[in-house]
What does this fold into?
Amino acid sequence: VTTQAKEIFLNMASSGSRPDITFYSGEYESTLDSTIVSFPSAHTMSSVIETLPFIDQDVSGISYDYVDTNYVYLNSPSITYAPDGSVTDVEEPNSDLYFANLFKQNRHQLQNYVTPYGIGLSLGPDGFRWQYEVTDYRDLFKGWVEIRAGNQQELIDLEFEFIEGTPPREVLEMETIWLGNYGHAAIADDIVMPAVDRTMRADASSFGLRTRTTGHWFGGVLNCAEFCPKNFNIQIDGVEQFEWLNWKECADNPVISQGGTWIYDRAGWCPGTFADTYDHDITPYVTPGGTHSIDFGMQPYVTNGGEGNYWTTLQFFQYGDYNHQLDVEVVDIVSPNTWEFHNRYNPICKDPEIEIRNVGSETVTTMDITYWVTEGQSITYEWTGELAFSEKERVLLPVADQGFWAYNGETKFHVEVSNPNGQADEYADNDIMSSEFEYPDLHSEPFYIWFKSNNFPNENSYAVYDEMGNTVFERTSFSPNTQYKDTLYLPDGCYSIRLNDLGHDGLSFFANNDGTGYFRLRYVSGSVIEYFDGDFGSFINYQFQMDTEVGLSENLDEELIQIHPNPSNGQFTLSIDMYEGSVLDLEILDSKGKQVYSEEGSMMIDRLRKNIDLSDLSDGIYFARILIDGRQVVRKLIKN
It folds into this structure.
């Protein structure tokens, strides 16, 4: 054979003949003539291991789970050698070559949640619960999936509740178009997140885009991106159809007094709560089976020395037919509720507040809302308004009689929606919701508001409201660093006290020069009712009940103490029976707690009739405080 083996395969051609091959075996002598050639050391292989941090409660600190390993060589030239050891070729590495883990392209963001500032913060022995609906993502929870959640600083329990039932509509297809960190200028100039074409499914009935954007880092004049509001938009086929201001108020956060700047409003997020999610119905702007351009953008970038970055997701949903035409649901019970997420609005003794939503295809303008306490009498409220599909509304449910809150051992509130547009609700499983609740404080003696202003008293005001929403007392003007004590003599009933702070920084906050103030409640007798945390953000809401009978001795019968006529034009008569030899103090207060009439004396007879002349006073509500041997009765007077 004269042809070398490495050339035999060249210039091969097909043939119709079959070769006749014979193999022979013989005896041969062979010799090997070898030359040793020394080559430089080969490239050293290294392994790059990808890990995910997680918390193992049996191990101190952060543990890591190994999820992937890549074997790589150093970024150095690749050299080819001849048999004699000489270099025949040198290939420089391509610095622009990038290898991506394609598996990560299937990531989908369920929510963007930032944990609260934890320095000095206590969430109690049971922690704090946040809740978010993920029904549209239900197809992601089938088969084998990985779930990633950042929890590098605290223990977080993540639970998914699977509820058997029928969703408002089926998700035929869901796609994450964009997910990542992007700069303002790059977004505005379409350098990143440019317009993309998507073909609408012909079998889909509706289409939607879901966006969630949070700004981070800050600098320059405007402190972008974390602390500057910016407008974002969505264009369909080059035409802007949606625009929104990506800005979130943080001072009403239910997790107060965090160990950081939790009160500052931010670009789409707050420490200790979920980022804002925006759902955009693009059905009117697209055609099933057609191809349309989708472009996520924001307002033009103006150089300010810093732009930060925006963690952004854009998700595309294609839905099937609506499963119901008429279907309304209870989304949430804001109050009464023991859920700590609603602690700013609980406990209550007046009108409950719920959130309702229309999940049927037909716009709803009326519905019945029935509510009751376990084993108590129910009330039905006829709601009117206008809710298109998926729209929500918070509703206050009127309670005219405090007897509604009477209970027989179980403090549970129930609410049911029915009869949307005067017709039967087509899906009953989402009509009813219940909540555990606690009763508010019950007071039987007078107490006072003890308020100390800080360096910026013009930010504050407080008021007392009765169960009908009438203002019983208010104070709107203060001097800096001054104490105020306002005594409240209130008749029986349900009341609320609200303290507002227009600066949204409470009375005491570490990161400004407002100084320190406080807001407290104390009984006139001296004992403490409540010391409110000064780092409360925008407001404090406190509801309570007054029941003076609780603090009266059994031998003091309130029915024997009467004031008549009531209402009156100013002439009242105080009648007291069966209290011979008692010490009597009488005081009349206006709605702001200011004394307008007083009298002291002893009852030397067993029946007293005393005329009270308020004819010189303006019309309004007054309170008669009657003390007999140190025991109190309060009567509400109306002059008209």
